[in-house]
């Protein structure tokens, strides 16, 4: 072996050390190391150094392992054979020995750790690690802490959350650059550098020599292993192989970093020392191997498109030209050669010389251009080359972790950051080529977030390494690879290029890591300032942003539906948000104060230049191309947001940063186009483009995007509107929305651009847009808090919201670094101001509500703002939802009973810069539109809706609210452009125009229109307004002409020309002049003003003539303060009244005119006769509307009927008993029970041929087995110490008892002495509905053929009840026969108990023959089969001889026992409440007993063994008997009395007579009482026993001795004394039993408690068999009440003196004789087995109710313990850990590791623990999952956060607390077996959970 040889060689130089054989090798290494260390410590250590070098050369030679690969053979050979692997290990061993310098390596590690100045934690983690983030302590938002540091620090009351790391990260504890020191944990609080001693020189001396060679060796391996991938992409297999081989080496380095600061600083020296690197790697030495590896390295560099500086001359170097062209354009052209010289002309003349001219030029693509940051890499140190290979190998996790582990070393941190930046371009290239770009992205960010979150470091690298230039250039370069020609506007000649959203680069978000780094560094003020000051960078950045301007263009499909719906819009929206908007928000966050004005000017200037270039590139003049829309205008949005910031925070004068009018006109077109397209999309005009276009419209307004998209767009439009001519703006809006033609007073019109069906919604869209534009104040003067409040109110008004969904829905400043943090204080305070918290509630249906916030009443009253709601709704139905809630509020608070209109809300005052916006409300164009629309609505023209009217009134009201202060009828500037509309209104103030009468209007109408037939008025100039020349509405709406005129005027500034454009065409439509020859001119007589129209409208809305009466005539005060609450909510009438009041209060003239109009009493209008023509035009829409309303009404009626039917079906109609429908008759004759079949609907009795049955669900249950005998609740273990042992459960105790009996007694007899079914018992429940069994069969057939996937499996017999849809899986036949109620058998007979006993015995002796083969008997058989198959075999077979009939017998009566016991538990464990069964009519026990009895009577018990005889007859005692038989029978005193009861009752022919039943109960009670006495005697101490024995013996002769417990007890003691039962009691026994003093009271209580469970079960049984109600009582009298109810208590019994249980005894034979007989049976047994005999006598009878485990208050305690816990089966940490809430077992959910016979662990456990029902808490999701048989469902979570919300999958990571009510509900469902009924979403689990 090479290493051995080396050791020998070294040893050879030391005569003292002989060669040792191989076993001594370790010793040898240690000695060598010690020697070398000594040699190196000498002052003259040259010799030692050489010696060490020689040794390392040999040991670490890189030729061995990878030589094969290097030789061009298959890389697999590299790992082949034992040799190489062993050699690797050997080399590592050597290194460890040498580092330790002869000592032990572990001791060395410990020694180095002692010198660790651990000020930083720096723990590095990979994806999926659970970490914490505390926003209160974080300075950088990326701050994160490991769990240990978090829990050690104090974060109480902080805003923190737990999260699963996506990409990996590192702990920042101790780093004051990233977090506040107050949050450091205890370990990292101490500034410990002071008290750590200096590192002794010799400790790390060897490391300094050895490590350089070791790292060089690693680099050589990496060079050797890398083969340039073939053309078909890199073979990742080969790379991974190399990495696997290197795993031990890298791990070794990683371990070194964990030794602490001292070792890290050595490593830093080694990694950054340039001399070392040069010496070792230059490849100039004599070592061939090194040479070869150096060549490989150069090849790798070249193939990566990188040059090594020495090769400079190969690529001709050009000197950079001035300006930025070399940065942006040339590379751009190179990259997209296909496009030719795109854009270069525009770009060359941009002024970029200030910033970049003097810098190193940037080269964008390899080949012809200058050297650049994209291409040159010169490695000067190990660190640099190591990073190079890390990138080459696509960031292997181990390497990343090693590089990050070093970061706590400050010097390393700086060096590494610079290296990282130097390789940035290379990283981008590798990322683009990578196949695993997702993993790689995560790893890159894992590194970069550690480097760039630190402001100091980011600033340093920005200054020294041109970080910003590099980043921007790299991003630009990256995007250039996927550009396409833009088709926006001018498809042929467009010079603009945009990114192609279909490319993988955008689709897969590959650019994400780079953009994320960029956003991260821009969050640092110092860096952002550099960026904003650097003009060159800004130009480049705007160039980058323009790639996204106009991407993902949509073209409206007009004919065919689009074949393929592209989903590229996701990529487009994500790209704009991440690559454009987030950096923008980052920059904006630094422009908050006056001093930053300059930055805004820079951005705005270059933004406008970029926009100008864009308009030129797409050849845009003034008309947008039709049927095209792009939602992406990032340049517009940059411009808008910086404008907003400038005005809001920097006090800049708005006009100083606005362009000229022409540019403003261009700027407004595209955002306006988007608004119009939104209306078109909602009007279904884009329906042929598929769903994706709706998706875009929704995303555009969705909460994460709205403040980067729609808000800036609307703001930009507001700015344009405030500076442009209002008439021009208004007409542009109506033209864009294509509704110009609709705005005519004629009743018919032609619209050349819009189908009639879309007109109405487009008109609504245009008006709504105007309302939003004029009333939204988000950027026009609202403060941040007001904005937050408005957003919150809007969201809450749509729906009640959870806290987390509110946080999500309220648009934060989307840049996470902006400082507005979710959960920040203002959020909470605003929330508590506007909303009330509704705690989480439970509906009885089981659906669980979360904690919700709902608006306070005063918010509805004063702050509900429909405009904001419309702006923020993604789905239109949310607007309706908000209105419905508003209506409900008004009805409830009594403010308004009818259907209200959206309320008008007062606005925040405008910022002075935007005052111009209000001119829109005071321009004649708008007034003419409003006038026309009011007129049309009044005349009932088509296509006008209430919504239109609502918006018209809203606009009028806005105009009145924002009118100029002084009212002038004369407008100052009448001249110029205004003249066009002078014919309509004299001025432009709405207040005065409202009263202006318009008499005649000339319209163009189709010849068919009714207007044509009327005569023209005689004199056209009847008054100065109506003269014909001025009378055309069309005049207004030659909108195109109007708009063109304005445009011309702005451009040419010559108004005369403009007037000539418009005058000749006074009446043309805006389509081509000659397009509609059949139009003719008509003149309408109008004679209305806006005021008169409003008053008439009031009459129309109220349906009464003269309904309007001016309120100020009664109360003049009203004009002074017009804000009257009575007008704030209401419908259209209220709105009209409010407007008239405002108009009157603003002008005396208006007031007078309103009064005049009201005085002219309008003559009553005759009922309108509808002509045929008008009938046709009666709006289709209206008819549709009516039809819709009718349909709604019908549906509602149907729903309410269905509901009431369900209610009656479920609860009301059926009587208290278990037969749902019955006919009661007056005479006490026997009535047959009548059943209703819910399938065929017929009623009738159940007969042998056509039996009816109850719909039942059979399920196996282990709930009973979970009862425990102590009160202390079981807790879920949350530490290793706590464990749960199932010894004290009911199931365990019964198991032990049965196996004990089976050990000593005869098997068949044992199986009659107990009940089973505590685990896996069959529980039968019904919904109470019946059906014919043949109907059921056909129903099942139909279900089988029904292909709809149900949540259940028909093959397993599952179905849902046809009536109530409750889950079921069988039908229980109803036994034909009498009704339970009036049963002749029930009348008491006066026979003596002896007679009855005989009768019972005879009846039991008759063998039960199975009835003849009728349908009924078949069904009985099949249901019995179902019952058996419900549970697993192991829960049915307890016999030692498999398949013995005793098994079936035991199983059958145990089913009855299980159902009775469970019912008892459902009643709360006792019968104090009385009444019928808890489920009322829903009990099926009666039918169940029939089926069981029928089957049990097939097994006759041999009369010899019938326990009845032992109970009622004295036999000859045969003392020999006990010894003869091998296994005796079970003594009667060891029998379980309740089981005996069920056996006796079920062995009788049915129906049973009441007196027989009472007889059985009486007899059994004597046995039970004797057992109680025996148990009591065993429990007490020796002294007590002897005392009682004597006391009782004295009274034995008294008359009622048989009913005195003292006598009986003393007798039992003396009888049992004969056996050795009480003997050999050591002292320890006495200690075990509480030494209580027994008083008569305590003994009585003890005896009663022993007997009570039997009495309860018996009473229930009696209740079901004979239908008697149970009496209710207090707990203390339960015993006596039940006893008298069962007939045990003699009727003459007085209750005065204290009740004594013994008085219920009624001995069938002399008590003392029978007791002697019973005790004798035990005697023979106890003589041999006293211990067991005693144990069997003490039966635990007091079981507490079953409960689930008690859970801790805080979820974190569960999570921290279990999420890292290893599974006990596979000893791995499960990916999805879960814990059983019934027994606390820890299991792997879906874990293949723990699979057994195709069953995964959870399913398996659910069968073992719950007989098929499992309740599991999923640790990583905080959710509970229920497994029921072959189905499962997610139940929900019982842990809620402080706001009452679940946190499924722990996504939010907020602290969670137990919700006791929910847990109670879960437990209730478990105990009552109602999971199947209450939870609706079930699915099959295919055993895979």
Helices, strands, pairings?
Elements (H helix, E strand, L loop, with lengths): L1 H11 L12 H17 L4 H14 L3 H8 L11 H19 L4 H9 L10 E2 L4 E5 L10 E2 H6 L7 E5 L4 E2 L15 H4 L15 H21 L10 H22 L3 H12 L1 H8 L6 H16 L21 H11 L8 H5 L4 H4 L25 H11 L4 H9 L4 H13 L1 H10 L3 H16 L2 H11 L1 H14 L2 E3 L11 E3 L4 H4 L4 H11 L2 H9 L1 H12 L7 E2 L12 H21 L8 H21 L10 E2 L4 H15 L12 H22 L8 H11 L8 H14 L2 H11 L19 H20 L8 H15 L4 H7 L15 H10 E4 L13 E4 L1 H7 L2 H7 L3 H17 L31 H15 L7 H16 L28 H4 L4 E9 L26 H4 L2 H14 L2 H8 L16 E10 L1 H13 L29 H15 L1 H12 L12 H6 L2 H33 L22 E2 L6 E2 L7 E10 L28 H15 L2 H7 L7 E12 H13 L13 E2 L6 E2 L1 E4 L19 H13 L9 H16 L14 H22 L18 H12 L10 H6 ...
Antiparallel strand pairs: 1-5, 2-3, 2-4, 6-7, 8-9, 10-11, 12-13, 14-15, 16-17, 16-20, 18-19, 21-22, 21-23, 23-24, 24-25, 25-28, 26-27
Helix pairs in contact: 1-2, 1-3, 2-3, 2-5, 3-9, 5-6, 5-9, 5-10, 9-10, 9-11, 9-17, 10-18, 14-23, 20-21, 20-23, 21-25, 22-26, 23-25, 23-27, 25-28, 27-29, 28-30, 29-30, 30-33, 31-33, 31-35, 34-46, 35-43, 36-38, 36-40, 42-43, 42-48, 43-49, 46-47, 48-49, 49-50, 56-63, 57-59, 58-59, 58-62, ...
